[in-house]
Give the backbone structure.
Amino acid sequence: MEKQQFYYDNKIVRNFIYASIVFGVVGMLVGLILAFLFLFPNLTSGVSFLSFGRLRPLHTNAVIFAFVGNAMFAGIYYSMQRLLKARMFSDLLSKIHFWGWQLIIVAAAISLPLGYSTSKEYAELEWPIDIAIALIWVVFGINMIGTIIKRRERHIYVAIWFYIATFVTVAVLHIFNSLELPVSLSGMKSYSIYAGVQDALVQWWYGHNAVAFFLTTPFLGMMYYFVPKVANRPVYSYRLSIIHFWSLIFIYIWAGPHHLLYTALPDWAQNLGVVFSVMLIAPSWGGMINGLLTLRGVWDKVRTDAVLKFFVVAITGYGMATFEGPMLSLKNVNAIAHFTDWIIAHVHVGALAWNGFLSFGMIYWLIPRMTKTKLFSEKLANFHFWIGTLGIILYSLPLYVAGFTQASMWKQFKPDGGALQYGNFLETVTEIMPMYWMRAVGGTLYLTGVIVLVYNVIRTVRQGSPVENELVEAPALAVISPNRLKGEKLHSWLERKPVQFMLLTTVAILIGGLIQILPTILVKSNIPTISSVKPYTPLELQGRDLYIREGCVGCHSQMVRPFRSEVERYGDYSKAGEFVYDHPFLWGSKRTGPDLAREGVKGKPFNGGRDDVWHFNHMYDPQGLNEKSIMPRYQWLIKNELDNSTIQDKMRTMVTLGVPYTEADINNALKHMDEQASKIEANLLANPDIKKSFGGNTTSKLKDREIVALIAYLQRLGTDTQVKK
Amino acid sequence: MSVIYLLITISIIVAVLFLGAFIKAVKSGQYDDDYTPSVRMLFDDELVKENSNKLIQTEKQKQKSI
Amino acid sequence: MDTENCFHCGNEIIKKDEILFDDKKFCCNGCKTVYEIFSQNDLSCYYDFQAAPGATPQDIQGKYDFLDNEEIVTKLLEFQENTTHIVSLYIPHIHCSSCIWILENLQKLQPGISTSQVNFGEKKVRVTYNPEKTSLKDIVYLLSSIGYEPYISLENFDEGKKKVDRSLIYKIGVAFFCFGNIMLLSFPEYFEVEEYWINQYRGFFRWLIFGLSLPSFIYSASGYYVSAWKSIKSRMLNIDIPIALGIIVMFVRSTVDIVFDYGQGFFDSMCGLVFFMLLGKLFQQKTYDFLSFERDYKSYFPIAITKVLPNGTEESVQVYDIEKGDRLLIRNQELIPVDGILISEKAAIDYSFVTGEAVQIEKKSGDKIFAGGKQLGKVIEMEVLFSVSQSYLTQLWSNDVFQKRVEQQHKTITDRISRYFTPALLALAVVSFIYWIFIDVQTAFNVFTAILIVACPCALALTAPFTLGNVLRILGNRKFYLKNALVVEQLAKVDTIVFDKTGTITTNKKTSITYEGQILNDFELKLLKNALRGSNHPLSRRLYDFIPNQQKIETISFEEVIGKGIFAKFEEGSVKLGSSQFLEHMSENTHKKTKVHVEINGVYKGSYVFNNQYRKGLEQLFEQLTPKYQLIVLSGDNDGERKILEKMLPKSTLLVFNQKPEQKLNYIEQLQSNGKNVMMIGDGLNDAGALAQSNIGISISENVNVFSPACDGILDASQFDKIAFFMKYSKNAMKTIYMSFGLSLLYNVVGLSFAVTGKLDPIVAAIIMPLSTITIVSFVTIMTNVFARSK
């Protein structure tokens, strides 16, 4: 009742900021390495854990969950305490949240390079880490809701709503997308419980909403807090911001399928994605305009104040990304842009401008406030701003060009209309190498800016005196209605705490829903099955897992879209029925290299007829086959011996997921593998060079090497539906 | 494709939850005043505050407003 | 920041009484004190959010003594319990961020206060305090002392805890939710006619859609069923009948469709329709929370008044409890609540508030004084003749206009259209039903329902709300605040405009003084000024200020005849000034103007004329209006200014003088009985009756935060000259509505062509419905803005 004195927890905010900065640098550094791997494919040759396929998920995860994630937590922990006039619910939970999250990141940083990956984008982490994420996320939720409950300010500012939405939705998305069955509790390996088309749909339902609710809603919340705060004037229209939130929340969840246009996903689902993605532009731009107009009247301040500059570019970036998004989900645009670097440019505008710059602005504003000093150097901050902005431009523009160029080359037919103009995929790659160079430069500039930030922050903290706990004073929340004081039943107690009430119901309903729904998924699903499609043989299954481990899916799609140009280049377009045994699906989202859906099919004009020897040599030294190739070497596949210890468990797991392996298949797995491997070995040894180097009595037989399994898988691709001559 | 049972159910459940939250918020009068909160959030309640830069910027504002 | 404006209140600083306090300039002690209070409690951030946000605190000695009275306090409190009291106070001065900041930091200024929360829109602060530590009175004094004097009147006294109705918001929320999700689930069927997947999930989708449509159908749309039913009972076909019909038919037909697997039904269109129409409703609900259009005398009168008991002790009693024979104490600036007899030997009373007349009136002991006058000068005592309700002024409100007004049924334009639309629609439906029944019963039903579905006049119903809502906003931005959308329609119909004189076409702020007669030399002026110095008569005071400074000289004798004039003797000579009778000098119609005649050493010099000032742009305004409207000026005072007005205003203008409030009312009534649509523009309580009686009463106000009598609209005085534009604008608004009616009918025709031929696919309906809505909304929005720009 009376006014109370208490402390805001600045320490936790500071920690998250530091973590964000550190992992930001790491994540972007990895990104930069990847950018240079485009230019020098064998930069990290021979070092399996530094290979492109394994670093790519590390980069995305580091940037999304470590850099942006930590920044977002910092922003939430800072603004929430102040908006609710209360210290975080529990310091212990805050600590657990912080350290837990960092542990997860470290775990990711170790497991991904080691090849433990589910290959589902932005959800590559394996099951034990998934569980950890879920737990820590709940801790975060409890901490947040607890704070909301013990708040001293009755009104829940719109930013808080965005945070709540983030928590609830991400929890749901993460749980359902990460439903996977471990091969054995002792190992990291697991298989997604969904197969093929279903897996794809769930993955992109998650994939898109991860962007929506991890990269967007929390940052919108932060925008609605920090922009007015820094500009020291109320948001342009608070009413609009409220409408913005609720309309966004009611329709955002639907946009996922636009990542799967022209795939084997049912058309109606695709159209659904399109329409809702297009509708999204309204709320998104409402928010953007609201953010920008908040700065009306302080543009003079923007000219001088680095923080506001960062915000302006961030919001503009949000506007561009949310305009481009709907555009890209239009089928005809998507037909061009999908699988190209256009998408890479698109996401980086979002990440570098919207998330990155908003975070930087926030950091530059928070650090001095929490150390009770001025920023060490406005100049450096401004320098960071300009070099960063330049970096973004140099990064994205070339990639737009690259994407468009490559796409049109892919679709280009010879004047006579007969064959493809650029039948050799590699031609389309060499064409855009200059763009890749510029991209690398842009990335470097951006990273330089961040390093300047690091220096600036260190100096600022040095000269200041950090206030770990900020003394504040605010009156307790006043009683509103007398009946409150009367003895009340549990339910009314819940109702009084809407958020808590909401959480409990979520859990309740979700559990209820699961019990009813999961069975229908686990049983053989009602996809129009193609009789000729058979489960993978044990060896192929192993090969497939290698394909997943090495992150081949990062550069090679396995989804031929129904365009003449693609059918011409890769073979018959993909049907839903082909993927019924694919746990997980491997459609991919980017074609740095050619599509492999029909790799095994012989007698195709361009990439057909590749025999085992070709694949062997290709893995050993791609540039040996074509010196222009940007495929990195995968020589360890040839050295390493294949680990078959878990193959039976794997097959059993598959059986549980509805793949029809018989007991016999499982028992004879090893025998069967040996037979299949021996055939391939024979093919390989038929080649004199290979015979020379591997024929002799080496430590392990060639057939026991990983490469054989991978070849087996590659040669299997597409053969099931191949028309038998 | 039976997975769409799952996805749609979840999506709708989530939507319903937010609808509930929305109604609750309105009921509890959260949105009766849709201006003051946006100003209120600008005020700091720190007891030890560094007035220095704040005042400077005030002066600026005054020049403008006069 | 070196400027001549007060650091606290921003007013111009008069050099001589400028105050310097820690190197900041203040215009007066009051401002300085407030600044001191803030800086002592380190609340000086008050000045950070906005430069010079403050107001000079007024002296309110004893004004709020009635807050000692327990039961009064109890009535004012919003929530009460032993250690917690919550009160909401209306504070007109709330206008900026600084106000919010300081008012939400009250606890730093007064220990007992625990929280205070501002509602900027309503200009209210909600204070929670501990009655053991402080009291409502202390809080009110605190607020006043920092320039935020709350306004407490009878009004908040008997207003109960008013219940806010949020149902519309719920309905919209639910409608949007249903609409959005149903859209989603409908897409499959839009795109795929026969497709493997659809066949798999058709049932699931359709029933899910059905389920989702229920809340929208049952809850969100409920309002339309009710109003449709009402209008059927009252035998007037309003627009909601076809709407309700359409919705129900849609639902039934759709349900039938999915039950018998005929198709997916029209649930999507139905929910969309409901959502959009509710949106329209919401859009129309533009309200100005900080204004009240329903004020009667209650909002002017103090809650309580100091009563002198026979034994001489004073106590504050509620105005209602005042009885005949009570003796009351009226302080400076206080309002006289009841009619009574003056007991103190003299008093100056300002009736401007009742009559609009700027000049104070002198009353002598024994004179009758009327409720509504404001007492100026030192405390007076009076004896009550009538209780509040029977007093002369309050009698006005017992007039039935104030009662009947409430349920005054006004037919909206939409209703008038639908009088024809609805029957036509039904007829069409029936006819085509009969036509088809001979061909194919199945189609007959389809067609019948399809017609009702397509023709469901969503766009039609949306037109007026969106147009009027937008107009309301635009006018509001131009400081012309209308009570609700209906008023705009009314405005367009007006053919007669009645102006009150004083305070409406004249400003009652400053009245200029002119001198007629032979010029006075400095010596005469000196005598005059010194003579005036002695008098307290308001006119004397004004004249005194008007005459330039003169050196001071001793009077030999000074006599003032109350209500007549002054006679002063000096060494140098004598001065006699006052009314013409007093000077026994009969010049032409002297009594028609407010004059002070001057006679020096027995020689008549001339007279000072106090003439009212007319609002700027008055002539042009009347010029613009005469062609289209019958203009009438209705004044409470004598026809002193007839000549001037006749000169200024167009011939056709009618001038009527000496109108008592109820006469004004009757005058309007009579105009109306001659079939006129009257708009009354007035101010002050004396116009209250007329304002209420007229088709539209607009009250003009120098400061919209101070009070205006019950009316349909409040016009900021500064916008007076724009009235012509507003009238034209309202007409244009109606034009817009008619045009978009045309548009929406067009859509209906298109839709019907599908329906009548029995070819209405859900997809068609689903496209037409939002399409029409969007076109209509954007059309009216654009038009209204265009008209607003064209001046």
Summary: The longest strand of chain A covers residues 3-9. The beta strands of chain A are 3-9, 180-182, 190-192, 469-475. Confidence is low (pLDDT under 50) at residues 481-495 of chain A. The two ends of chain A are 86 Å apart (CA to CA).
